[in-house]
Fold these 2 entries.
Entry 1:
Amino acid sequence: MEPSGVRYHDELDCYVVWGLEPARAAMADPALTSDTFQPMNLSYLPEVVRDECPDLVALVERWFIFRDGADHQTARKAVRPLFSPRNIRDLAPEVATIVEDVLDEAMRSTEFDFVTEVADKVAARAIALILGFESASQESLQRWGLALSKFLGASYRPDFAMEAQVAIVELSEFVRSAESAPGGLLSLASGEREDRVATAAMMVFGGLQTTVGLLGFACKYMMESDVSPSTVGERSALIERTLSHWAPLGHVARMADRATSIASTAIPEGSAVLIALDGTDVLDRPGMLTWDPELPSGGPGPLEDKALHLAFGYGVHRCIGAPLARLVGDEVVRQLVEKAPGARVVSATPKANRTYRGFSELVVRIPG
Ligand code: HEM
């Protein structure tokens, strides 16, 4: 496969862009809109199912990740303070406590599933903390995040849409009950009540599956390359390498509002475009169902330039939650090294979802 390129794929009737420069150009191209929910999700859902999911349709349509221009900027700017360097620094001790509680509990057994016993719990609690949603149960947050990611990853599936509709109704009810609490996301998010509920749902969905994916990839990579990062720089290198080789979100989608061209390939108006975040042609991968331990062999090298990967996207829609994901990743790696030296991966089952990637099970054994 070429290291970068743009290709039209007949099977999916869309263009695929991969490699650092073409992908960046595509994500910065104003002709490629993020307003993709209707053409790339809703249009695949049978009308009768759509009618049965009114809350899902109405709320996801309001997500600012699917908007462009001033509308997007206003909504994004309103919630940015949650992820400011200062807020993230202030949250660090509480995140450390969450990781400690969860790891101590998991390590009561010498063998445990890192995904369900550690990554799911840490991600849900850290996201609840930053959003001010600590009164939501971890189980509910996980269920909502999973239902929404299954629906957005395969919108043609009526069963996924129905599950996501139930999740959105529960989430709206939760937001209604949490609205009067001071601080957190709901006091910052802009727009009408519906917009705030929509932003809450988008954050839970956007942050959970991706952070769980990152934690699983980082854990497996660290244990299999037999390294014990001990400084902030070494841990950061491990996390950035993990992100660059196993992007938890495989690609982002755009629609061509008007004709444009990427890396000298003409993209006609009305085309769907998938932009790979891991440097490979989305439709030509051996499949995210495989794990290639050969990729970044030898453990983490010197601190890598964060700008050298696209796992958090690029341009105006770049991930707003990246500082939280990095903090959580750093803390989990730090405590794993400290509490479980010599831990090994016993078995790994990659997730079937090729958009939100990671492991459905990652069994880890702690030496006795
Ligand atoms: C390893 C973890 C994560 C990965 C790999 C990731 C990846 C991404 C990517 C690639 C985008 C760009 C989407 C696009 O261009 O269409 C994005 C946007 C976004 N992410 Fe993340 N994300 C992660 C964690 C989080 C967390 C923890 C949160 C919040 C709690 C979050 C909230 C968001 C939001 C709100 C956007 C939309 C930004 C906008 O449209 O302006 N993400 N994320």
Note: The chain is about 50% helix and 10% strand.
Entry 2:
Amino acid sequence: MAKNRIGIDVGGTNVKLALVNENGQIVYSNSVPTRAEMGYEFTVNNIKQAIYELLKETKLEAKDIQGIGFGFPGQVDYKAGIVRNAPNIPGWVEVPIAKLIEDEFHIPTRVDNDVRCAALGELNYGAGKGCENMVCITVGTGIGSGLIINGKLVRGASNAAGEIGHIKLQMHDGPICGCGDTGCFEAFASGPSIVAMAEEYIKGGKSTKYREMANGTAITPFIVCEAAKAGDPVAQRIFTIMGEYLGVGLSSVVNLLNPEKIIIGGGVADAGEILMRPLVETLRKRAMKIAGSAVEVVPAQLGNTAGVIGASLLIES
Ligand SMILES: [Zn+2]
């Protein structure tokens, strides 16, 4: 019988569900609001209803589903099936999501960090196909990663491996990071740091296109990116600096792991060449020669479906 699995990607705003077949194709998808402010029980009930609807619409029964996988943006205990905490989804602290779903549907359920799920998706069906050693990073509000070593996802001793966003780029001081420390990689190179740089330039009296484009509203990484693509030299400079920071941070990752590929996804990565060119140039210059010249840096291929496709693969990973 065909191996159908359900992948569920839980975000701060929406929960995406998909029925994924044995070829990694999405055959049915749906989404429900997270509404974290209503408490985690509310979200879990929404998810249960959405799974019932999926079964009804696809005319499948629980026994036809090989497994259910969840991706969460936060600290997850894969072995115990528990979400330890998810900073962007208030109330999700020590939630035994795997048991809650298994008790309802009697389908094996696994849960892991969302970037690790994306890495599994890219490894099996996206930009990482055929790789033995690769790093999948997402650059957005922070920098997350999923590490594949010798074909296997690396979780570490306490399920906390892959936090490359907190590699230190500066000994003392430096920008304050969401983790509470200073000088972390993601405090230099992420969506908020693009906005911070953009605002600094405005304060410094630079005339910029992104200021006009924002037109009194808040500056976002997207606006700065659009301005850079439209030829604004200040916005282009910001993305060059971002690319250089990413290249320096990733040179440590390359020296440590010697991956074949680094796959880059997340909102900031949509900037494309204006970010990738300085990133790759810096990486080749700053990493050790053998590892630095071997690594290929490529954009993620699965886009926002990587999370559900990857989550569906947890059942055998
Ligand atoms: Zn940090």
Note: The first strand starts at residue 4 and ends at 10.
